[in-house]
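Please, structure for the following, as tokens.
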Amino acid sequence: MNIEIIVLVVQIIAALGVVVSVVYLGVQIHQQNEITKAQFGHSLTQRVYDRYLATAMSSEFSNFSSKDWGSEDLTDTEQWRVTMFIITLLVDIFDVYEKVEKGFVEENHLIMRMHALKLGIMKTKRATGVWNFWKLSRDQKFIDWFESEIYEVDENYVDTSKISSALKSSVR
């Protein structure tokens, strides 16, 4: 009987060890997910900061950015630059939208980017043309969401509660 008790105690200890290991593994996975979310958020914020810094550091880019991108007076080079910049912004939105949908980053990253696009960039003929080309690569859910956000929004209305909370949480 002594051996049976020892075997039973060993089995109980082994079972407890498995439970503790599973709990520990769950905690480790949760922590890694939080670290990954923070890294995604940081890289998205860094992209925006890099664009801001490039604008601040480059007089040429600042002059270009301040032009009326809807104007017919842009040179061929300027039109190409505008098109490439709009593509850059759209690809950024695609990426952030997917990360928000998967729960990898907070929605504030998307809100701030969409707010910037709603200010007029996407209202130009050139941007609409770029969007009409690139939307072929997106699913209908995204297309419906994006177009309702950009093209069917009341231009005089800004939900400041969302913007201010997004701004507060993205400023570090």
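The chain has one domain: 2-170. The radius of gyration is 25 Å.
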